[in-house]
Write a structure and sequence with these properties.
Elements: E1 2-4, H1 7-19, H2 25-43, E2 49-54, H3 58-72, E3 76-81, H4 90-98, E4 103-105, H5 108-113, E5 119-123, H6 135-144, E6 151-154, E7 179-183, H7 195-199, E8 201-205, H8 210-214, E9 224-227, H9 240-243, E10 255-259, H10 267-278, E11 283-288, H11 293-298, E12 304-307, H12 310-317, E13 323-328, H13 336-345, E14 350-353, H14 356-359, H15 365-375, E15 381-383, H16 387-393, H17 395-402, H18 408-419, E16 422-425, E17 429-433, E18 439-443, H19 458-471, H20 476-494, H21 502-513
Parallel strand pairs: 2-3, 2-5, 3-4, 5-6, 6-7, 7-8, 9-18, 10-11, 10-13, 11-12, 13-14, 14-15, 15-16
Antiparallel strand pairs: 1-9, 16-17, 17-18
This protein binds ligand LZDS7PUF and potassium ion.
Ligand LZDS7PUF is lined by residues 10, 14, 28-29, 32, 55-62, 89, 125-133, 137, 154-155, 183-184, 207.
Length: 516
C-alpha cells in the first residue's frame, strides 16, 4: 500500500521542506529531472533523440533540466517552450536560462514538424494546472495524441486534474502517455477516473521528502491507501497477516451467513458463500427460502444451508450470536421483503449489503441510512454498489461526480458520511471510504488490469470475499480493501476466459503465492 495525496498536499510537503531549509527548490527540480531521465533510459535504452515540451511553470522547469541532462548524454534534443521566460518561477527560469540550445515556440505546427524524434516529453503542466487549457496549448495537447513516438509525462499528462483524474478541458484533451514519472508520492488523479488510462505506466521518483510527508500523517482523512499499478513482487508483506487464519477452533474464524434468493435465483448466494469460505471464514451458511432449500442443498457440501422464511426467519437465525458477518442482496429481489430483511440483518455483526439490498431503497435511501444509524455501532455495515446502484442511493453525489464537480473519491467519502456505512464503489478504480474518514483507492490498471473480471457474478464473489474476511476481522474497511485486492489477484491468476466460479478457486493459489 502506498499513500496518495492531492496536488495541494504535494505543494505543502515541498514547501515545508524548502521553508525548513532542508532542500532548495532548485535541488528538487534537479532531482525530479534526473529521475525522469533515468526512467527514460531504463525504458528506452536505444533512444537517442527527444522533443521536450516545456510549460510556463515548474513542470516546464523540470523539462529544461531533462533537456540539459539528455543533451549532456549526446542526445539530439529539441525544446518547444511556452510563455515568457521572464515570467517563469525562479527555478524554472534559471533552468530555462541554463539550456544552451534553441527554444522554439510551443505550437502545434512545431510539434507536428518534429517527426524524427525517438521520445516526446510532456512537461507542459503538472500540479499547477488551475484551469482548462485553451487556444494553442489545447491544440498541442490534442495533437500529442497522434504522436508516433513514445510519450513521457512529467508528473502528469498535461491537462489532467491530479485531484479528480479528469481532463480539465473536454475529452481528448489529455494525451495518452506511455509512461508518467511523478515525484515523491503519487497523486489521487493518477489512480482514479481517466487518470490511469492517460498516465500509462507510472513511476515514482523519490525526492527525499519522506520526513515532511510524514507530517501529513495526523491528517488521516486525506491520506489514502492505494494499491500501486505494478504487480506485487515483494509488495505484499503488509497485507499478508490480514489473510492469516487464527489457529484454533473453526468458530475462532467466524461464521458468515449469506442470504439466498428464491428458486432459480440462488446462484449468486452460492458464489458469495464459496468465496467467503475460501477466504477463510470458519463456517459459512446459506440462508435459503424454503422453496429454494433443495436447490441450494443439492449444490452445497462444506457450506451449510438453513431454512429462512423472510425477515422473521432471518431474525430468528441471527439470534445465534456466533454469526459474525452477513451478506445479503445478490439476486434477493427488489422490494419490501428485501427491505424488511435488511432491517432484520442490521445489528451487532458486520453486514455486507450488495445489489438488490441497495436497489430496494432507491425510492427512499434515507430509510436505509436511518436503519444503519439505529444500529448504534459505527462501521458495522458496508454498501458495495456499482455505478448504477451508487446513483440510486446517492443521487446528489452521483450528479456532482457526473458533472466533474467532485472526484470519485470525494463522492464516495460524502456517501460514507451520508449513509453512516463503509461505501465501496466498484470499478477498475474501486474506491472505499468509511465514516471515520479513512479511504482507499484500488486501481487495477496497467500490469494489474483485468478486463476479464467484468463478468456476471464477479460482484457476488467480491461481496462474499468481504463477508468472509469480515467474519474473522474487527475492521470492516480493512476487510473490504483486502478483499478488493484479492479479487483482482484471483482474476490475474486465472487470466482471460475467467468466469465468476473460477474466482474462489483461485484464492488458495494467490494466498499460497503470497506466503500466507
Ligand atoms: N512537488 C515537488 O516536490 C516538485 C515539483 N516540481 C514540479 O513542479 C510542478 C508544479 O509546478 P507549478 O509551477 O506549481 O505548476 P505547473 O508547472 O504545473 O503549472 C503552472 C503554470 O502553468 C500555468 N497554467 C496553469 N493552468 C494553465 C492553463 N490552463 N493554461 C495556460 N497556463 C496555465 C500557470 O499560470 P498561472 O497564470 O495560473 O500562474 C503557471 O504558469 C510539478 O508538477 C513538478 O513537475 C519540481 O520541479 C520538483 C519538486
Ligand atoms: K506534464
Amino acid at each position: 500500500m502506498t499513500e496518495v495525496v492531492t496536488a495541494a498536499q504535494m505543494r505543502g510537503i515541498e514547501s515545508a521542506a524548502i521553508e525548513a531549509g532542508a532542500v532548495t527548490g532548485a535541488a528538487l527540480m534537479e532531482r525530479a529531472g534526473a529521475g525522469v531521465v533515468a526512467a527514460i533510459l531504463r525504458q528506452w535504452p536505444e533512444a537517442q533523440s527527444a522533443t521536450i515540451l516545456c510549460g510556463p511553470g515548474n513542470n516546464g522547469g523540470d523539462g529544461y533540466v531533462i533537456a540539459r541532462l539528455l543533451a549532456e548524454r549526446w542526445w539530439d534534443v529539441r525544446v518547444l517552450g511556452m510563455g515568457d521566460a521572464e515570467a517563469m518561477p525562479p527555478d524554472a527560469r534559471a533552468n530555462r536560462a541554463a539550456w544552451q540550445g534553441e527554444v522554439a515556440p510551443l505550437t502545434r505546427a512545431n510539434l507536428e514538424a518534429a517527426t524524427d524524434t525517438d521520445i516526446v516529453v510532456d512537461a507542459i503542466f503538472g500540479t499547477g494546472l488551475t484551469r482548462a487549457p485553451a487556444g494553442e496549448v489545447l491544440s498541442v495537447l490534442k495533437a500529442l495524441g497522434d504522436c508516433a513516438a513514445p510519450l513521457v509525462a512529467v508528473d502528469a499528462p498535461s491537462g489532467l486534474c491530479l485531484d479528480r483524474g479528469i481532463p480539465l478541458a473536454r475529452e481528448g484533451s489529455v494525451p495518452k502517455c506511455d509512461l508518467t514519472v511523478t515525484f515523491e508520492v503519487p497523486k489521487i488523479g493518477h489512480f482514479i477516473a481517466d487518470g490511469p488510462a492517460c498516465c500509462g505506466a507510472l513511476e515514482v521518483v523519490d525526492l527525499g521528502l519522506s520526513h515532511w510527508r510524514g507530517k501529513l500523517g495526523a491528517d488521516t482523512t486525506r491520506l489514502i491507501d492505494a494499491v500501486p499499478m505494478v504487480p506485487p513482487t515483494e509488495g505484499t508483506p503488509h497485507i499478508l497477516p490480514n489473510f492469516r487464519k487464527k489457529t484454533g477452533h473453526k468458530y475462532d474464524n467466524g461464521h458468515a451467513l449469506v442470504v439466498s434468493g428464491g428458486p432459480s435465483k440462488t446462484g449468486a448466494a452460492r458464489l458469495a458463500a464459496r468465496a467467503a469460505l475460501r477466504i477463510g471464514a470458519g463456517l459459512v451458511t446459506v440462508a435459503s427460502p424454503p422453496t429454494a432449500l433443495a436447490e441450494n442443498a443439492m449444490q452445497l457440501t462444506a457450506i451449510m444451508t438453513r431454512r429462512c422464511g423472510g425477515a422473521a426467519g432471518l431474525s430468528e437465525i441471527l439470534e445465534d450470536a456466533r454469526f459474525t458477518a452477513l451478506c445479503l442482496g445478490p439476486s434477493l429481489g427488489v422490494g419490501e421483503q428485501t427491505r424488511a430483511m435488511v432491517r432484520a440483518a442490521l445489528g451487532p455483526r458486520f453486514v455486507v449489503l450488495d445489489a438488490d439490498a441497495l436497489t430496494s431503497f432507491e425510492e427512499d435511501p434515507s430509510e436505509l441510512f436511518e436503519a444503519i444509524a439505529a444500529v448504534g455501532e459505527p462501521e458495522r455495515v458496508i454498501l458495495t454498489p456499482h455505478g448504477g446502484e451508487f446513483g440510486r442511493l446517492f443521487p446528489d453525489e452521483n450528479a456532482a461526480l457526473d458533472a466533474g464537480d467532485i472526484s470519485k473519491l470525494d463522492a464516495v467519502r460524502e456517501a460514507a458520511q451520508r449513509s453512516g456505512a463503509v461505501v465501496l464503489l466498484k470499478g477498475a478504480d474501486t474506491v472505499i471510504a468509511s465514516p471515520d474518514g479513512r479511504s482507499s483507492i484500488h486501481a487495477a490498471h496497467c500490469a494489474r488490469s483485468v478486463p476479464w473480471l467484468a463478468t456476471a457474478g464477479a460482484g457476488d464473489v467480491l461481496a462474499g470475499l468481504i463477508a468472509g474476511l469480515a467474519a474473522r476481522s474487527d475492521d470492516l474497511h480493512r476487510a473490504a480493501a483486502d478483499a478488493t485486492w484479492l479479487h483482482v489477484e484471483a482474476a490475474r491468476a486465472f487470466g482471460p476466459g475467467l468466469i465468476a466460479e473460477d474466482l474462489p478457486e483461485m484464492v488458495p493459489r494467490v494466498l499460497r503465492d503470497m506466503g500466507v
